[in-house]
Amino acid sequence: MEEILAYRSPSLLADIPSHYCPGCHHGTVHKLVAQCLEELGLGNDTICVGSIGCSVFIYNYILLDTVEAPHGRAPAVATGVKRSRPDKFVFTYQGDGDLASIGLAEIMHAANRGEKISVVFVNNTVYGMTGGQMAPTTMIGQKTTTCPGGRCADREGLPMKMAEIIAGLGGVSYSARVAVNNIKNFKKAKKALKKAFEIQISGKGFGFVEFLASCPTNWKMTSIAANERLEKEMIPFFPLGVFKDTQGES
Amino acid sequence: MSRIFIKGNVAISRGALDAGCRCYFGYPITPQNDIPEFMSKAMPEAGGEFVQAESEVAAANMLLGAGACGIRAMTSSSSPGMSLKQEAISYMAGSELPGVIVNMNRGGPGLGDIGPSQGDYFQSVKGGGHGDYRTLVLAPGTVQEAYDLTFLAFELAFAYRNPVLILGDAIIGQMQEPITPKEPVAVDAFEGGSWRLEGARDREPRILKSLYLTDGALAGHNLRLQEKYARARKECRYEEFMTDDAELIIVAYGSIGRIVKSTIRKLRKEGLKAGLVRPITLYPFPSEILKSLAGKGRKFLTIEHNMGQMVEDVRLSICGLAESGFYAQLPGNLPTPNDFEQPIIDALTER
Ligand SMILES: Cc1ncc(C[n+]2csc(CCOP(=O)(O)OP(=O)(O)O)c2C)c(N)n1
Ligand code: SF4
After folding, report:
1. Ligand 1: does its nearest atom lie under 6 Å from the Cβ of A159?
2. Which ligand is nearest to the CA of A125?
């Protein structure tokens, strides 16, 4: 009988069991990153700047030269890397606590300087690794361990829309928000990520892709319910789309 | 090389440039602004990069990134900014990344003042940030030394894969003296080639990190770091001045060490037998020479431009073998050689 190859895992992805919770989107985003790097032939020339959060072990899954940045500082570390090795492909991978809270100054200024790096931003509306505390992206009414009564706009402000904020900065060439909760969105997400990567390759500037992602564990939901919440609650507030594309096609 | 007349901050910048530094990251703060100002021109001219970072936090993390690529890089600041750099320095030590960090110490605590001080001794030599680590610490006492030690700092940072600190102050930074520069280094393009990040072509990926979670891994990592610090003891440097027949050994570093030397010259003319040990490396600390002098029955007086920090290391070094006094030049007050005469005479004549 003839064998048909139905799925091939990207070779940059390690063939090991993952520590992510069932239904967590970090694994899916890792796969997309590995696929895009591979399809663009970047694996041999890439330096990954990891961050602090559930994805701190990214180097165990995506087989790349990797440096660990302190919490929130990945864009500054990536600046140092890219300025040292402008011939290499450099990206950061950061959660929403990391990027939108403690690391807000670093992401804003790296973006505004137009550092020629790519940023993969995973917004799951909570601090995953530390047990589901409130993040700057937590939705109004969403209960977390540090807003047990639900986030309140009066008290905690509104969730930050990073893809839009980043798009407003001069040095940015590309900013988009995507999701990986279904096949249709996954395909669009891949296109956006590839675009952000290509912008770095062509030396154009800073590329930013925000992934709406699920954290079933801290949302206290099944994987399926988490995907539904993402579609019904997150997307209406955090619209998907391209907010800036200096290469056209927005 | 012909002699040039420059101030300490410029000597540090020139030293870095001639040592092959090609990335500089900084944030404005007095009294070290001459360094980023020099580097903003020198780095691009040398084919390197200058970034005025959004904060000292970011500048130190940029240094971390450059270090991970095996590039000779530097950041500089002064006391309040140094506090902000500590997290990144701890990560660099934990991830074994080279980098040079300059602190032109000013008065503290808090915003303090913009004058000279040695109040950051503890922060500099005891690690400074979180966890069990050390940076190598070099303390210039002249403008020539500011140049030479910055040059050396890059060699040490790469030899030990560790952050190296230059600890100066507003006196060293602003003082003008003639110096003889060295022949600029042609940095080996493969420096750090066995560990630096450049993309995993035809080899296993490299990971530069400080996280060790599996059973026993962090313990082993800490042991390896301690072994490295023990190896670095051989880098210990100090200046001995008129200690042979001295009844009193004064221990003072940096600008204060140099001022005390003038005081000793004067007192010697009056027949007072004082000598000086001026630590040049504050970490590793020159304990052996102090211990051996203590064993010969000498008395000690530590003079610092702070409320008493290095004196603790002096006392640890001499293990109670000798009397050991302390004189504080108060931070906020500018020291002159006259200030130290009476404390030295008192220490010599005290029974
Ligand atoms: C300076 C500092 N503060 C706090 C922490 C603790 N900490 C580790 S991960 C994390 C939050 C991670 O959340 P996020 O960035 O949203 O990523 P996720 O885990 O959700 O993927 C925090 C606060 C730390 N490591 N360092
Ligand atoms: S806690 Fe949340 S973000 Fe972290 S691995 Fe589990 S599901 Fe993913």
Report:
1. no
2. 1
Whether B200 and chain A come into contact, CB under 8 Å, resolves to yes
Query: Sheet holding B274-279: strands in order across?
Result: B238-241, B274-279, B248-251, B299-304, B324-328
Which listed ligand is nearest to A123 at the C-alpha? 1
Predicted confidence at residue A6, as pLDDT, reads: 78
Q: How confident is the model at residue B274 (pLDDT cuts 50, 70, 90)?
A: very high
pLDDT in tens, A213-247: 999 999 999 999 999 999 999 999 999 999 999 98
Q: Let me know whether B59 and B159 are in one domain.
A: yes
Cis amide linkage into residue B284, ω under 30° from 0: yes
The minimal CB distance from B200 to the residues A44, A106, A109 is found for A44
Is residue B202 predicted with pLDDT exceeding 70? yes
pLDDT of residue B332: 86
Range of the domain at B15: 4-199+222-234
- pLDDT, residue B351, reads 62
pLDDT tens by residue, B275-320: 999 999 999 999 999 999 999 989 999 999 999 999 999 999 999 9
Q: Is residue B167 part of a domain?
A: yes
C-beta neighbour count of B161 within 10 angstroms = 19
> Are B244 and B293 contacting, i.e. CB atoms less than 8 angstroms apart?
no
Question: Residue A1: its pLDDT value, please?
Answer: 66
Average pLDDT, chain B: 97
| B31/B175 same-domain check | yes
Each residue's pLDDT tens digit, B206-221: 999 999 999 999 999 9
> Does A21 contact ligand 2 (Cβ within 6 A)?
yes
Mean pLDDT score, B158-174: 97
Contacts of B205 in chain A (CB under 8 A): 59, 63-66
Check if A218 has its Cβ closer than 6 Å to any atom of ligand 2: yes
Q: Is residue B165 part of a domain?
A: yes
Q: Which atom of ligand 2 is nearest to the CA of A54?
A: 4
- Pocket probe mutation, ligand 2, options A94, A129, A220, A221, max atoms within 8 Å of Cβ: A129
Are B229 and B270 in a shared domain?
no
Q: Which amino acid is at B89?
A: I
Chain A interface disruption, residue of B197, B214, B218, most A CBs within 10 A: B197
Q: Name which of B54, B73, B200 is nearest A105 (Cβ-Cβ).
A: B54
Q: What's the CA gap between B63 and A96, in Å, rounded?
A: 24
**Token reading at B255:** 């600008």
Mean pLDDT of B95-109: 97
CB of residue A128 inside a 6 A radius of ligand 2: yes
Among residues A230, A249, A202, the alpha carbon closest in space to that of A122 is found at A230
Q: What share of chain A is helix, strand, coil (3-state, %, to 5)?
A: 40, 20, 40
- Report the chain B residue with the minimal C-alpha distance to residue A56: B211
Cβ–Cβ under 8 Å, residues A54 and A26: yes
pTM check: above 0.90: yes
Q: How many domains does chain B have?
A: 2
Nearest CA in chain B to A109: B54
